[in-house]
Amino acid sequence: MSDRELPNVSSTTPLFGVTFTISDNSTSENSSTSGLDEIIAANDLTSRANYAYSFLAGLGFIAGCFLLYSFIFTYRAQRRLAWLDGLLGAFCSIQLLLVLLSLHAVAYRPDYLRTTDLGCAALSFAINTASLCGLLVLVLIAYVLTQDPPSHAVLRKPGVCVALVILTSLLICLLLAGLRGPHNGLQEEGICFMDPVKASYADARFCLAFLVPYILQLGLLLSGCIRQWKSEGHFLHGSEEGPVFLAITSVMFFCQLFYGVTLRKDAHLETALDHQKRAFLSVAEFVFFSGSSASLLLVLLVHRPRRESLYSLFQQLRDCCQSPRHSQPSRNIIAPHIEITDTLQDIES
């Protein structure tokens, strides 16, 4: 009896093992399918954001080129630029540079740029420097609008302002570059992220490259409001640069805030980023670069001299398109009239 039961036990053991193997395969297939769905959904989100930003970046690039042409044309015509116009022209040039630097994201997303650690660090340094220079130029515009310094003031000299903005931006970005790395090897190739997801780097970038410039702007605006209130005047009344400054600094604030908060939130996570969080961080990068394109469009549409330049350009194009048709004079076509007269001599002959 026992000899007959042993084969039964031995026969059921492999069967149980096969059943267990099949359940493992089904579980792994389900997990791989769900992981593939997450990757597809993340890539779809990144691609949609890429398409939307590409359209906005194209408009911003066209607006930036026209703004540069307008500022250069004004300078050549008048041999000088007003101080606020000069600062606004510098801001537009920096934002146009940021639009060009954002092409690395447009070209490779939903994938990422692959380059050496040194090249990736140089790209991140250039983007942070240009972004911080733009914010510091906005601080100078706020200073001129709210404090109305005299023409002989130190900050009204172009050389002093250029040196102050560039040196401050370089020092802060060098500090961020030291926190960023690379710490392994300069020539090692890998995936390039604009900003690493590190807690120390994200906190330092949020404080130095975002909070400090906007705290300075807020302090200048509040002091200007208080001074105008004491003098019973209207804040930014009669200034053509006032509305455009408020518009572009508000747009830049929300775009920079969204990216900075997203980077800090992901940097303080205890686990590695999954595909959805990495895709959302890519969307935040597109929002960050969208501030530059939106600012260029706002300067073109809100600033009255630039808007009038655009309107005059449209008028010239319309006149050029209509001139070939209206330049030809109207001609009266006269039908030929042949008159035959017979003289008396012809009849007699």
Automatic annotation (TrEMBL):
Keyword Transmembrane helix: yes
Bilayer-crossing regions: 51-75, 87-109, 121-146, 158-179, 199-222, 242-259, 279-302
Tagged with keyword Phosphoprotein: no
Keywords, in A-Z order: Membrane, Transmembrane, Transmembrane helix
PANTHER family: C130050O18RIK PROTEIN
The protein, known as: G-protein coupled receptors family 3 profile domain-containing protein
Source organism of the structure: Takifugu flavidus
